[in-house]
Structures are given as structure tokens and as C-alpha cells.
Amino acid sequence: MAWIFLFAAGILEIVWAYSMKRSDGFTLPTPTVITIVTMIASFALLSVAMKTLPLGTAYTIWTGIGAVGAFVVGITVLGEAVTPARIIAALLIVSGIVLMKLASPH
Description:
This protein is mainly α and 106 residues long.
């Protein structure tokens, strides 16, 4: 169950990062509320996952899902630049996530 909670926390991290971008510096009410609610939910799920998963594993995977997910959303939804260096960086993050999962005793 901890891995499911961790994955959900990572997805919510993507949502709050995107809604924070859309909030225009917390000046638009709806995206601001979405940011705050999903941020709290993401932290709560991460906290539950950390009850059984090692800190380093849980935090690395949570931030990795958020970072790569935000990168993908930035490209697909916001039209951000796709460059070889950015793609390599995202692949390195994914590689680290996979290796961290494989190295986890849980």
C-alpha cells in the first residue's frame, strides 16, 4: 500500500506544481485553492508512505515523479521547449527513480 500512496502523492505533486503555475503568483483564487489542497494531500500521502518506506527512497521517488511529471506537463500543456539536454536530464531522473525502487528493501 505504501507504494500506491507514494505514487498518488507524486501525481498530486504534479497537479499542485501545474496549478501553482496557473495561479499567477497566487493571485487567481481557483488555481490557488487547487494548489493548496493538492499540496496538503500530497504531503499527507507522502507521510503515510514514509511510515513503512525508507526516507531516502520515499522522498527521492516522490520528488522524481513530481519533477518528471511537471516536465512532461510543461512540454505537453504549456508548450515549453523540448531540448536534448532536458530530455536527457528527465531520463536520468527516471533512471534514478527505477534504481531507487529496485534498491528498496520494501
